[in-house]
Amino acid sequence: MPIRVPKELPAIKVLEKEKIFVMDEDRAMHQDIRPLEILILNLMPKKDETEVQLLRLLSNTPLQINVEFLHMSSHETKNTSSDHLTRFYYQFKEVKEKFYDGLIITGAPIERIPFEEVDYWEELQEIFKWSTSHVFSTFHICWGAQAGLYHHHKIDKYFLDQKLTGIYAHDVLTPTWSILKGFDDVFFAPHSRYTGVKRRDIEESEELEILVESQEAGLFLVGNKNNRAFYAMGHLEYDRETLQQEFERDQLKGIHPNLPTNYFPNDNTSEVPQLRWHMAASLLFSNWVNYAVYQNTPYDLSTLLGEEK
Questions:
Q1: Do the domain assignments include residue 248?
Q2: Digit-coded pLDDT (tens) for 149-178
Q3: In 3D, which of 185, 181, 182 has the Cα closest to residue 172?
Q4: Domain assignment of residue 258, yes or no
Q5: Which of 55, 168, 185, 227 could cysteine-pair with 217, CB 3.0–4.6 Å?
Q6: Residues 73 and 91 sit within 8 Å (Cβ to Cβ)
Q7: For this structure, is 207 an active site residue?
Q8: Is residue 280 classed as helix, strand or coil in its secondary structure?
Q9: CATH code: domain of residue 56
C-alpha cells in the first residue's frame, strides 16, 4: 500500500524510480479507509534527502499512511529553500490542535551544543509535551533521541572521546518486543555522532528498557515500556553514501575526520561502500508502524487527549 504525500513533493520522483508506490492527495481522496496519520519533525539540514530516506522506509507496509512534515519556526534553515518549506512543511502552531498516530523526530548535527543553548529548544520542548497527548507513538532518531530522553526522563548525553562514525554490529537483547519481530540476533546499523547516552542511566529508569546494543557503538534502541516512545541512537535510515558524504564534508572543513569504521571496503575511500543495513531499517520501521502504531492506536485520535506516555 502507498504512502500519501503532497502532490508536488520532489521526493516523489526519486521514490517512483525505485518502484515505491506513492499516492498523491487527489488519488487518496477516493480511498474509503482510515489512513494512519504520521508527522515527521525534520531537523536535518538537507531536508529533501531525509524526506526520501524516511518515506522509503515508511512505504514498506500494507497500510495507507498520510505523511505531513514539520519544521521549527524558531530556527532559520540554511540548506533548504524557504519555498520548499512553505509548500511542503507546517509550523507547530498549524498542527498543535491535530492528533497523529505516529511522530518521527529526526536527528540534527548539533550534538556538541548543550540542549538549552539550541535556538529552537523551547519550541522543541513544547512539541515534546504536546506529543504526550496528541501522538500515539513517537520514534526519535539520534540527536532527537537524546533530546527526547533528556526532556522526558532527565537523562543527559555525554561526550565521546571522538566522533563515532561507521557501521557496527548490534545485538538484539529483547526479541519479544514487537518492534523487533523478525530480527536476527545480530544486525548492522550506521552511527554518526559525537555524544552518547549511558547504559546505567537507562537502567535506572522504571519506564525504559534497552532493546538493542552494540559492543562497539553502545546503546542503539531504547523503548518506553508502554510501547509509545522509542529512541534510536543510530541512523538506520541512512543511504549507502551518506557516511561518505559526511566524511568528505568534514575533510573540506579541515576537521580531519576519522575514517568511518567498517564502511569502505578495505578502508579504501575510492571503493563503493557496501549497503548492509537497509533490511534491518525496513523491518524496524514497518514493525513500528504495524505493531507500535496501527495495532494499538485508537480509531478516534481525539481520545488521546489527556493520556500520557
A1: no
A2: 999 999 999 999 999 999 999 999 999 999
A3: 185
A4: no
A5: 168
A6: yes
A7: no
A8: helix
A9: 3.40.50.880
Tell me how far apart the alpha carbons of residues 103 and 177 are, in angstroms, rounded to a whole number.
19
3-state secondary structure of 68: strand
Q: Are 99 and 131 in contact (CB under 8 A)?
A: no
What gap in Å lies between CA 10 and CA 41, rounded to an integer?
A: 18
94-119 residue pLDDT tens? 999 999 999 999 999 999 999 999 99
Query: 266 — alpha (psi -120 to 50), left (phi > 0) or beta?
Result: left
Determine how β-strand 36-41 pairs with β-strand 65-70: parallel
Residue 150 in any domain: the answer is yes
Q: Is residue 249 a known part of a binding site? A: yes
Which 3 state secondary structure label does DSSP give 164? Answer: strand
Binding residue per annotation — 163?
Answer: yes
What letter does residue 203 receive in the DSSP assignment? H
Known catalytic residue at 111 = no
List the catalytic residue out of 111, 142, 170, 191. 142
**Grid coordinates of 243:** 557516511
The grid coordinates listed for 145 are 533521541
> Cβ(265)–Cβ(271) under 8 Å?
yes
The total of structural domains in the chain comes to 1
What is the C-alpha separation between 61 and 14, in angstroms, rounded? Answer: 19
16 is catalytic: no
Residues 6+ positions from 216 with CB-CB distance below 8 Å = 168, 169, 261
Catalytic residue among 68, 213, 237, 246: 237
- Per the residue annotation, which of 68, 111, 235, 246 is the catalytic one? 235
Residue-range definition of the domain harbouring residue 230: 3-160+167-240+277-303
Choose between 23 and 198: higher pLDDT: 198
Note whether residue 254 is domain-resident. Answer: no
